[in-house]
Amino acid sequence: MSKCQSIGKGGRNQEITLAFEYCFSKLMLNNQYQELDCLFSSYGSDGIDGPTDAAGAYFLYEKNCSNLDQNELSDHLNRHDSYNYFAKKDRLIVTGPTGTNVSDLQILIINF
Hints:
4-stranded antiparallel sheet
């Protein structure tokens, strides 16, 4: 990632999910992991992630999927605009405020 002059929209959970998707897409360039399914999600237990209405976001990769656009991922990462990326993909987790604040949660499930 690089320094940017503009700040996009998103919170730390959305940003880590976007960063995971970007790194995962780089692994997929090797085509050696095409036969796996992967789910990654990061969200706040309080239902709030940064200055947004989302608690977090998720990334789902299914076998032989080829819809990972590294240029788009890199662009949103560089602008710290994870919220708009996931909103466009319909992958925000929106729960509303839960009234509890235990921690941020990350889940990674891989099926080989």
